[in-house]
Structures are given as structure tokens and as C-alpha cells.
Write a structure and sequence with these properties.
The protein is α/β, with parallel strands linked by helices. The termini are far apart.
Length: about 1000
């Protein structure tokens, strides 16, 4: 305990600080006499001013390391008239420094704030946790100085809660940590003053309070408080530790030759490294260094510190020791073997060496290996030519200004009353991944409420100035180790709605990226909303260069190899794209690395976008930074002057256009690639029972207009009709069929909103969602001579009957006639009958040869018209089925799997050959598959005149199939 027996009890019991308020002298430091520096005077008056109007809030004082915040800390109790003060310090070493200074008022007397003769406060340095037996000592003390663990034990007592009237925290960037925070909570009746050089944290947790004074580093440099600093780069390569050691010795000895009283600190990041460095310096330099680490006793550490201050040694080797609050201005050389990675730690470290309050000291020097890759706050601090004097000041002030701007921003949010403490989530602590869903909207309503199903309740924060709403949803889920009905775990979900008023854009953040959620939020907060077309979304790549595209999606306009969508991933996938690729594909999503030059400076970023009006990045940001990010995206998207060039082969891929109306030449509808790769199970609300794969439902176009397309899906048990408008939004009056994603039910219309149906046209255009990828109508032609003329009469065929029994005696259906025809061909080793909903084809004929298996898929349709080559109904549906069946021939494995799954549910029945033997043949790795698609339609004639419409359909089907790389082509069995 410091000074505890110095005064009589009656002297201690009086109000020491308030009674000595009159003795404060605000002497300004000058060449004639010592006094308070500008920074100290400013901080003192700011604190006094703040507490004339605020009693509940903490005051945060930001002063650079070495600018004299300890003096301000000691003056504060006198200013505010507090009679029992708790000072919390980050370490035992700093605790001792402050206790020694406070008990003698050394700094304040030297600065002529007080006369040396004035009675000093009674100071107790708390070395151990609270003990009831120590209460008499606490009662006699004006000031108690403690580290966090001891201060916490004291703050939990009734005595502390009643008696302590001021809590001062040194290095207050630690206060969001649990122990430090609890001290402030326990002493909530006391006044709080927080001191720090870095009012920000790497984890973005809020330092609660009001910044009342922020003394910038540039002013500290101007006032001579923050000295000259220099970075000395050691070339990389070889034994870098030895190189740093040799350079550090050279620099220190050179400084001493100039008469400077400089000492060295060797910094590393682990005790084992410190051991190695101790030997290295001992064996390879003349320097006398002592190693300090947290495993040593406080007595031993103090001994080495005294040796350093008495100039008995040249310096110390340490691992994050002698950091915050340590005051030894002669420490001027830093040998940095392991750089700090965060700005806060770097600034604290640099500040230790930049102090100027000693004689015979010069420039602080930092010796480290040059490193072009290490970035701190986007600054290459350890690059060969880095100028630390400017960089450190700019980084410090930029970060401090950003922190103050963020604080002002968060103050703009108003929360609803009634939030219980356990659900109170500080929005300042939110750090979210950069993901944005963008709409063009009208009629934004900031005061709208979140839909009830989102369960946001009162956890809503609105910022009227910024047009932003933050909602935090809550649901209960079952833990993995319990059954689903026991939902006991709380899971919070973040939603952010931001309206960019100037551009009429709505930005939505949701942890769950489904169209259902995005559309529901847009519907609630806006009167009208539309997706952003892909050609506008592509503008997010504007003002970027140095592209490296490592994930790209391409929409296949022709179903090559059965692909609807190709995804490429790698270090730079654009190298795999050539001009011929651009003729087959259109741009889908893209995710890339690039250099952003929009601000005039270069910044490396990642960015991606998709046709669903979504943009994302691998960055994580706090809320104000996230809002700035989405607003920059909005400005790009709406800037029609932006012309994107990646200067890579990706530029060969054409861009989709906005769908303004449906063309009148729609050919067929097909499921998205995601549906084929992961087919959902569809169930009925009106007919509960078994579920069916969506790919087992046939998909047909029922009706078209310029503004919408009506489609139908059906199998033997279930059916449903849906419409799709030109915004790509699906709806249905039936709302019967649904699927499950996780534990949630999704109507079929919601599923298609996330996985839109592909509409293909006769001129090779492709429509998906609200976009159209235009084809090449001039490339379409059909050679009528390719139709195989078949004598249906020879087999007594009823050409008006596709399957079943004919009403004409002695006649057979087209399917029966085809089966007879296939059986007559001895080369058909296996024949499978697969007619039915979700079929691969009506018949599958498989010919086994030495090195290959030849597969033909036969699609049969009856003749509707009395004329040949004249009726669209005769060709339209069967041509679409023929094209869609190429999906099953993408790979031999996929084809085999589909046949097997169909057989399991009663289809793909063998007409010739053993089914299991057929599977074994198809699985034989030594045999490749060659495939053909066959349309069987008696209404198509090789010789009769063909209408333009019919020819157009057949040409389109032939073109699509021909470009399906695993299929050799389209064959047609018709009539003479």
C-alpha cells in the first residue's frame, strides 16, 4: 500500500479531491517553465465540460501514446470532486507506475499543476483480490489502483458499489472484454472515464461511452509529443532473424556513437521464439539483452526493468510485454522479428518508441524484414519503400475518424421499447458478410413492420436519415442431439433493409438467400418492386481491372452435353473460354478477384453477382461500411455509361438482356440444371401420401401471351398449373403442390422462383427468369429428306392411336407397331418400354457392340391431322420431349442411374433382354455410349410439302439435339 499511514484518519475522511480543487493550476507548457501540454489541457477541459451535462454516460478520452494521459487521469478526480477513485490498469507494471505517480503527484507537480507542498492522496496498490479484512485500508484510501481481476473482485462488493464515485480505465479499448465490462456494470452508480490511444477493436465490439476528446496523432507530431519514426527494411531471404539482429546492433551502436542514449527492444510472438532469439543475439552480437515473458515472476521482471532504466543492459527481448502504458522514452530501437497484424496493436507498439519526454534521444527506428504481402488496414506497412512517419499518422487518424463517424451513424437508429435484456443485441457488434439482393422499387415505407412469420418482434432498429431498417428474427430449433420436437436452441437471424432514395433501389440482406424471403420483404416495405436485369448487374464490375475470375457460370443456349448451366472454378477460368464458347453460352454468375480503382487508389477486392439481382463479396463489414458498400453498387448498376471490359477471355461471353415480352415462338419448357442435379420431392396438400421427384413430372407449355406463360406439370397422380410473368415471378391459384427445404414448406411456385424454368424458342433463344439470351435465327434449317419413310399399313397401324387398343378391328397402336419393328432388328440387344409420366422415352433400344453401346430414345406421338406436314400439334410436343431427353444422356452414369430408378418404380420394363444384364453392360467402363434421339410421328412425310411452322419446329429440335455433344443427332420415323 502506498502512503497509507502518512495521514491521520480525520485527514483521510474529509473530501480530499473536492477540497483540493481550488489548488489546480492550468499552467501551459513553454520554454520558460514546465506545464500542461495542449493535449492535456484540451482533455481536462473536455472532461469537465462533458460531465456538466452528462452523469450517466462514460467519457472516452482519445490521446496518442506518450501524449500524457496519465496526468489527465490524475487531475480528473480533483476536477469532478470525487472522493473515492478506482483506477483500472491492463498490467501489474502499469499499475505500479500509476500508483507511484499518484501517491507523489510527481507528474502533476512537475507540470506545476500543484505545488509540491500540497498534501498528497492516499493511494492503495491492490496486489490481491478483495478480502473483507482489507476494508479498513480501502476506507482510508482516496485512490485504489488495480488490474482487472482484482478490480472485478472489488467491484462486486456492496462496499465498492456504495463508496466508489469515480472509475478511471487506462487502455480502455479493453472495456468490451467481459471482465472489464463487468467492472463498469458493477459500478454503474459511479462516474466513468475511459482513456485510450486506439478507440477501436479488431473484433468491432463497441467501447461504450461518448468520445469527448480526440487528440490526433498529426497534432501530437506537430506539438513534439510524437517523435520522428523510421522503418528500416531488411531484405528477405536467408536467415532473416540473424539479418535483423545484425542490423539492430549496427543501428543501436551508430546512434550511441552520435551521443544518443538509445536502447533496444526485440519483439517476437512466442516464448519459444524469444528463447531462440536470446541465444542468437548472445552468440552473434555484442548486445547485452535480457529476456522478459509472462512466465517470469513480477520481481524478476521489475529487476530487469530497473537494469534497463539504470542503463546496465542494452535492451530486452519480449513477447507482448512492456506494451500498453510502459513509459521509458529511451527505448528507441525496435527489432521486429514478428510484426503485429492489427492496427491497434501496431499503434500501441509504435507509440512506445515515439515518446519525446527525455534528453539525448533521437528518431525511433523499426527494423523488420520487408514484406510486400502483409497489409494492415490496406496499407503495406512493411514494404521496402514504406514511409512510416506519414503512414502511421494517416492510419491512426483515419481509423479514429472512422470510429467517430460510426458512432454518429449508430446514434441515428431508434429501437422499439420493450426488448428484454436477453434479446437485446447491440447493432454496433454486428459484422456481416457482404451479400446484397437489389430491387428497383417505388413507394418505400420505413415504418412498415416485418412479416409475422419472420418473428422479429420488437427487435427492430430504424434509421430515418439513412432509410435503413435492421430486424433480428428469432426461432427455436432442436439441437443435433435431440429429436426435432424439442426446439430449445435460440437462433437469431439478421435482416437489413436499405432504401437508396436517390436511385430508387432497395437493398436487402438476409442470412437465408431464398427468393421467397427477399420478395416477401420487398413486398412489405415497398408498393412496387422489380428485379435488376443481368446486363445492369454486370456493371458492378465497372471501374475494376486486373481481373482473376475463379468461379463462373455460363448458360448453355443449346444444352450441349445435356448441360443447362456450366460452372467453372479454378485460379483463372477465363483462360478456358474461347470464341466458340461464346457462340454456345451466355453469361451466368461470376465471382472474381480484381483491383478497384474507383476511388483513385488501388484496392484489391473480391466481388460476384448473379442473374437473381444478387451481389456478394468475401469481405465482412460493420453496418455503416456495409451500407456504403451497397450504395456504391447501386451507383454502378444505374450508371449507363459504364461499359465493362475484363480484358480476359470472359469478354467472349455475351450478356443476357431484359425480357420485355414473351416471343410468340416458344418451343418448349425445361427444368433448370439445379432441378436435374438435385430434384426436389413434390407432395400434395390435397392428396397426402407419397412424394415424387419433380423430374418425374412432365412439364409442358399450356398457353402464352406477351406478358405471361402458363405451364403445367403432371404425373399419373398429381398435376398443377402455374403462370410466369415477364419479371420471372411464378404464381398459381391452386397452391397444392409443395416441397420441403430443411424444415420449411415451399410451394411449387416458390421453388420455381428460386429455380426458374427454362423456356427455349424456335430461333435458339433461351429465357430464364426475367432475362432472355438471344439466339441466331439465321442458323436454323431442316432437311426434309432425313425423314425415314415407314410403311405403317404393312403393320396394320392405327396412326391416330399412340398406345392402347384400337377401335378398328385388326389395327394396332403406333407404339405396338414400333415395338414389332424394333424386335425385328436383331441388333437391338435390349429393348425397354418406359411410357408414362416422367419418362426417358417411350422406347429405349440398346445395341451392344465390341467397344460401344448404341442407344436410341424413341418418342412416339399420334397423327392428329388428315394432312401430312401441316399440323403443329403433330410435332410441337414430341419435338420438345425429344430435346429434353438429351439431359439423361449427359453421362453414361446418369443414363444408367435414371433407367435404374425408373425400373424401381415400375417403369423401364424390358421387352427384350434381362434388365440386370442390361445395367451391367451400361456400367462397363470399357464401352462408350453413342446416342440418337428418334421422333416417331406418322404425320411427318418425306415427300409431302411441309409448312414453314412445322419446318421451323423440326429445325430447332434438330439444332438443339445436334449441339448436345453426347448425342449424334435427331432421327425421324415418319411416312412416305
Amino acid at each position: 500500500m502506498k502512503n497509507i499511514n502518512k495521514y491521520k484518519l480525520e485527514d483521510v475522511m474529509r473530501r480530499y479531491f473536492s477540497s483540493n480543487y481550488k489548488n489546480i493550476m492550468y499552467t501551459r507548457d513553454s520554454e520558460k517553465h514546465q506545464g500542461l501540454r495542449n493535449a492535456q489541457l484540451g482533455a481536462i477541459h473536455a472532461i469537465a465540460s462533458f460531465f456538466t451535462m452528462n452523469s450517466k454516460q462514460a467519457a472516452i478520452t482519445v490521446m496518442p501514446t506518450g501524449s500524457g494521459k496519465t496526468a489527465v487521469l490524475m487531475v480528473a478526480p480533483y476536477l469532478l470532486g470525487k472522493n473515492k477513485v478506482l483506477v483500472v490498469t491492463p498490467s501489474a507494471m502499469v499499475r505500479g507506475q500509476i500508483a507511484d505517480d499518484f501517491q507523489e503527484l510527481t507528474t502533476l507537480c512537475n507540470a506545476n499543476v500543484f505545488k509540491a507542498s500540497m498534501k498528497k492522496p492516499v493511494v492503495y496498490e491492490m496486489l490481491h483480490k478483495y478480502n473483507d479484512e482489507m476494508i479498513p485500508i480501502y476506507e482510508k484510501s482516496d485512490v485504489i489502483v488495480a488490474t482487472p481481476q482484482c478490480a472485478l473482485s472489488l467491484s462486486e462488493t456492496d462496499w465498492a458499489k456504495k463508496k466508489i464515485t469515480l472509475v478511471e480505465v487506462d487502455e480502455a479499448h479493453h472495456t468490451p472484454a467481459k471482465t472489464w465490462q463487468q467492472i463498469l456494470i458493477n459500478t454503474d452508480k459511479a462516474t466513468h472515464i475511459l482513456f485510450t490511444a486506439t478507440p477501436f477493436r479488431l473484433d468491432c465490439k463497441e467501447i461504450k461511452g461518448e468520445i469527448v476528446y480526440d487528440y490526433p496523432l498529426s497534432m501530437a507530431y506537430r506539438d513534439g509529443i510524437f517523435g520522428e519514426i523510421q522503418y528500416i527494411a531488411v531484405p528477405d531471404g536467408g536467415d532473416t532473424d540473424l539479418r535483423i539482429a545484425k542490423k539492430a546492433e549496427e543501428v543501436l551502436l551508430a546512434d550511441r556513437d552520435e551521443g544518443l542514449e538509445h536502447y533496444i527492444m526485440v519483439r517476437t510472438d512466442s516464448k519459444s521464439s524469444a528463447d531462440v532469439l536470446e541465444r542468437l543475439y548472445r552468440e552473434n552480437t555484442s548486445l547485452n539483452l535480457k529476456r522478459i515473458d509472462s512466465s517470469m515472476s513480477n520481481v524478476k521482471v521489475k529487476q530487469y526493468i530497473q537494469e534497463l532504466k539504470k542503463h546496465s543492459i542494452d535492451g530486452i527481448i519480449c513477447v507482448d510485454m512492456l506494451g500498453e502504458g510502459f513509459d521509458f522514452p529511451n527505448l528507441k530501437i525496435a527489432a521486429v522479428h514478428a510484426p503485429h497484424k492489427s492496427l491497434a496493436a501496431t499503434l500501441q507498439f509504435v507509440g512506445r518508441f515515439a515518446r519525446t519526454n527525455a534528453a539525448n534521444i533521437g528518431k525511433a527506428k523499426f527494423i523488420a524484414v520487408e514484406n510486400e504481402d502483409l497489409e494492415i488496414e490496406n496499407n503495406r506497412l512493411y514494404a521496402k519503400d514504406a514511409i512510416w512517419q506519414e503512414m502511421i499518422i494517416d492510419m491512426s487518424e483515419g481509423k479514429n475518424q472512422k470510429e467517430q463517424a460510426n458512432r454518429r451513424y449508430y446514434k441515428g437508429y431508434q429501437s422499439l421499447a420493450g426488448v428484454v435484456d436477453e434479446d437485446r443485441i447491440p447493432i454496433q457488434a454486428i459484422t456481416l458478410n457482404c451479400h446484397d439482393r437489389i430491387y428497383k422499387v417505388k413507394g418505400f415505407n420505413l415504418e412498415a413492420d416485418f412479416p409475422e412469420e419472420f418473428n422479429v418482434g420488437t427487435r427492430i432498429h430504424r434509421n430515418k436519415e439513412d432509410n435503413t431498417i435492421i430486424g433480428i428474427g428469432l426461432e427455436y430449433v432442436s439441437p443435433l442431439w435431440m429429436s426435432a420436437e424439442f426446439r430449445i436452441n435460440k437462433v437469431y437471424t439478421l435482416y437489413i433493409i436499405h432504401y437508396q432514395k436517390k436511385l430508387g433501389l432497395l437493398h436487402i440482406y438476409s442470412q437465408c438467400h431464398t427468393e421467397k424471403i427477399y420478395d416477401r420483404l420487398a413486398e412489405v416495405f415497398c408498393e412496387e418492386y422489380d428485379k435488376i436485369p443481368k446486363f445492369e448487374m454486370n456493371r458492378v464490375l465497372g471501374y475494376l481491372n486486373g481481373f482473376e475470375i475463379f468461379n463462373s457460370g455460363m448458360v448453355n443456349r443449346y444444352s450441349e452435353s445435356g448441360e443447362a448451366y456450366r460452372i467453372m472454378a479454378g485460379s483463372d477460368v477465363s483462360d478456358s473460354i474461347d470464341p466458340s464458347t461464346g457462340k454456345m453460352y451466355s453469361a451466368g454468375h461470376v465471382f472474381c478477384k480484381a483491383t478497384d480503382i474507383s476511388s483513385g487508389e488501388s484496392e484489391n477486392i473480391t466481388i460476384g453477382y448473379s442473374s437473381a439481382s444478387k451481389v456478394w463479396s468475401s469481405e465482412y463489414r460493420n453496418i455503416p461500411d456495409y451500407i456504403q458498400w451497397v450504395e456504391r453498387l447501386g451507383e454502378k448498376i444505374t450508371n449507363s455509361n459504364i461499359k465493362v471490359r475484363t480484358n480476359t477471355n470472359y469478354d467472349y461471353i455475351p450478356m443476357a438482356e431484359r425480357l420485355t415480352e414473351y416471343p410468340d415462338n416458344l418451343f418448349f419448357a425445361d427444368y433448370a440444371g439445379t432441378t436435374y442435379s438435385s430434384p426436389p420431392i413434390i407432395r400434395s396438400r390435397s392428396k397426402p401420401g407419397n412424394g415424387y421427384r419433380l423430374t418425374d413430372f412432365s412439364l409442358t407449355i399450356k398457353e402464352t401471351s406477351k406478358t405471361q406463360v402458363t405451364i403445367a406439370i403432371l404425373n399419373t397422380e398429381l398435376s398443377m398449373t402455374l403462370t410466369c410473368d415477364i419479371q420471372g415471378k411464378y404464381s398459381s391459384e391452386e397452391a397444392d403442390l409443395y416441397t420441403r427445404i430443411g424444415t420449411e414448406e415451399y410451394g411449387l411456385e416458390d421453388y420455381f422462383n428460386d429455380n426458374p424454368v427454362l423456356f427455349r424458342t424456335l430461333d435458339e433463344s433461351l429465357i430464364t427468369g426475367s432475362e432472355i439470351y438471344k439466339g441466331n435465327p439465321d442458323a436454323i434449317s431442316f432437311d426434309q429428306k432425313k425423314i425415314e419413310d415407314f410403311d405403317w399399313d404393312e403393320l396394320n397401324t392405327d396412326v391416330g392411336l399412340e398406345f392402347g387398343s384400337s377401335r378398328f378391328k385388326g389395327k394396332v397402336s403406333i407404339q405396338d407397331a414400333l415395338e414389332q419393328h424394333l424386335k425385328l432388328d436383331a441388333q437391338n440387344t435390349y429393348i425397354l418400354y418406359d411410357h408414362g409420366s416422367g419418362e426417358i422415352a417411350d422406347y429405349i433400344a440398346i445395341q451392344v457392340q465390341d467397344n460401344q453401346v448404341i442407344v436410341r430414345l424413341y418418342h412416339v406421338k399420334k397423327m392428329h391431322s388428315a394432312k401430312y406436314n401441316a399440323c403443329m400439334e403433330d410435332v410441337y410436343e414430341v419435338a420438345g420431349q425429344a430435346v429434353k431427353s438429351t439431359i439423361w444422356l449427359r453421362t453414361k452414369g446418369k443414363f444408367t442411374e435414371k433407367i435404374s430408378s425408373r425400373h424401381t418404380v415400375g417403369h423401364c420394363k424390358p421387352v427384350r433382354g434381362d434388365f440386370q444384364e442390361c445395367l451391367r453392360v451400361l456400367r462397363d467402363a470399357g464401352k462408350r455410349v453413342t446416342a440418337f434421339i428418334v421422333i416417331v410421328q406418322p404425320a411427318l412425310s418425306k415427300s409431302a410439302k411441309m409448312t414453314d411452322k412445322v419446318q421451323e419446329v423440326l429445325a430447332a429440335a434438330s439444332t438443339y439435339i445436334k449441339r448436345a455433344g453426347k448425342v449424334q443427332g435427331l432421327e425421324i420415323i415418319g411416312s412416305k
